[in-house]
Amino acid sequence: MPFIKLKVLLLSIVSSAIVMHTAFASEKKEESAAATEEVPKDQKEFTDKTAKLTTLGNRIEEAEKRFQELVREKAAAKSPEAKQVLIKEMVEITNQRNKDADEFNKIKSDLTYRYPYQGEKLNRRYQTQSSRSLEEMEAAGGLDELLTRTKKVVERKFAPFMEEEKKPEPKPKVAKPGEEKPPRLRLEK
């Protein structure tokens, strides 16, 4: 008998839990449907602009990758005509990247000032993009720049372990026969 009461009690608990779960799920669906219908215009504009910001960031990154590929191709190119074609393409990529960077910064500042509370999140996620010249972009990934940065890192890290370079001792000056040293005066007590 106590076993049957226990079964009935468990059955009633499980069935009430199922009913409550179903009611909660239908209530949740109603809330989500109402939320999608009532999205404020400002929130929609904010999400659109953040999506645009992400897209521009990705385009800038892709342009930099493509530019570095062209730098390598230019270094490997043998004929001047091929180099000129690559340089023209590099200029086009640089111009488009700089336009995207300007638009990126404009949208980012707009979001920061129009939506200050949500704009705080942007400062944690997005860095500003700056326009760069062709030479700056080429030098950023070139072998010379890489070697220079590596040398600075090595010098900074291993400076305590490196021996100081011995400075050559200055050679004594030999007086020429025409030059006489003035006599020194001594003071006596």
Explain what this protein looks like in three dimensions.
- This protein has 189 residues and is mostly helical.
- α2 runs antiparallel to α3.
- It is built from six helices and no strands.
- The model has no long low-confidence stretch (mean pLDDT 76).
- The protein starts with a helix and ends in a 31-residue tail after the last helix.
- The chain has a domain of 121 residues.
Largest sheet: none
Beta strand %: under 5%
- Determine the mean pLDDT: 76
Which secondary-structure class do the elements indicate? mainly alpha
Number of helices: 6
Low-confidence stretches: none
How many strands?
A: 0
Distance between the ends = 128 Å
Helix content: over 70%
Based on CA atoms alone, the radius of gyration comes out at 37 Å
Overall body shape: elongated
- Helix and strand sequence: HHHHHH
Could you name the key traits of this structure?
single chain; mainly alpha; 75% helix; elongated; 189 residues
Brief rundown of the structure:
By secondary structure, the protein is an all-alpha fold. The chain has a domain at about 40-160. The protein contains 6 helices and no strands.
Topology overview:
Blueprint: H1 2-37, H2 41-76, H3 80-114, H4 116-125, H5 134-141, H6 143-158
Helix pairs in contact: 2-3, 3-4
